[in-house]
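Ticket closed. Logging final result for NAD(P)-binding protein.
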Amino acid sequence: MKPLDIGIAGAGPAGLAAALFLARAGHRVDLIERFDQPSPVGSGLLMQPTGLTVLDALGLSRAIHALGNRIDRLHGADARSGRTVLDVRYDALAGGRYGLAVHRAALFSTLHDAVVAEGLPIRTGITLAKAETRQARTALHDPDGEIVGDYDLVIDATGARSQLAAASVVAPKVTELPWGAFWATLDCDGIAHDGRALVQRYDAAKVMIGILPVGRAHPGEGRKAAFFWSLKTADADTVKRAGLERWKADITGHWPETAPFLAQITDWEQLTLARYAHRTTLPPYADGIAFIGDSAHSTSPQLGQGANMALLDAATLAHALSSAASVEEALAAYAAARRRHVRLFQLLSYVFTPFYQSDSRSIAWLRDRLVATVAKIPPAPQILAAIVSGTLADPFTPAGLQECRWPETALREA
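Final structure:
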């Protein structure tokens, strides 16, 4: 295929990764961002072997490891009894896999710095209202109807609230999920915590508290941890009205060891309320636009796959464009390559979410006793490790990737 003019809407991780892959393949890319200054949104996240493999393919493994924090296990316990109800270890699978917890600013800056270093243009302060396809070209318009750019292909990486996806012929049905979470990024140096694990405490399925050590947001800074507490988003204002000290007392009542973290929170403004929605754009393309990341699919964050899936989308789309004879053929190949993996993990997220965020005591009882017991019996530990890793269905071959050689990667980045 001849080099294409490609407009990429959204300068988040998905858009930045797509720009790097496609520019290196010889295409002309134009990144368009609605904010005046591109910046990360959110607190910490867990990079899985899937996302880490994509970053390694981009030559960014050393940079992200320098900021992130290695995670070897996910551990959850009942807040009242102390009983372990979740224990997923990456080493249940052969190969030396691990996760890497990162601050969103670290992931963003790693990708953004690479884009800037390669001289790729980012046009900022531009809001996109609609797309119009004419004669195999797709024009992007701002709210005033002015043409922002005209391209052979548009890639929508603007996230779960994408206006381009909502206005397309494949506009997804959006189901707002009732449960969300308060998030904060806190200092963790000098505070006792498990530095190699995502640790959670539960009270049935109504309370979930977690600490994820995420490394550094920027070189030279102290180490941080992402702290989260789940709740129904409709209850957020009620919780705030009851007061910050009451909220903190409730958390320490469930998990006293969180007190040093909570002492850093002195204002509600330090907390971000994350809201989640379930949506799928099928197929993930229409009228000259390819949808990647949350604009193509979003769900509950229980399995921590969001950013990892977005990076896989970018790699897979670039691979499809490199091996197809036309844009139309490439888009169909992209959709086919991602279909199985996306559907599987959306289904798993749908199934797992009620076990950790719901009003059901019976589901929580089942989780704490039956599921926790079965999870210890092979091959359940291996299956759980594959689910968390994002590799229960092969995500690499359809994206034209080879998985990292993990022992070598760990040694190289240590």
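The first helix runs from residue 13 to 24. No further action required.
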